[in-house]
Amino acid sequence: MDARVLAFRFMCVTEHRAAHVYRMCRRVLGHREARRESRAVWSDAYELLVVLTIDSETFAASLRRRVIAAERGSAMTEYKRGVAA
Hints:
- By secondary structure, the protein is an all-alpha fold.
- The protein has four helices and no strands.
């Protein structure tokens, strides 16, 4: 899966805010927290997600697992709603 597509899919399924995802990416890169991280927007988080996904197979695999799990959960919820209706 392309790194940009994986990053976008992760942003769509995560329950975290952009600032949290941005901080997570910076921690993976080894940076300490800074004040500007609380003002991070999705474009900032997206850029770091793409870079980390390209650079680290392990990080990409963890994102892929999270996306698949979230999509399965979403599909199951939709299925249950359809059965109950």
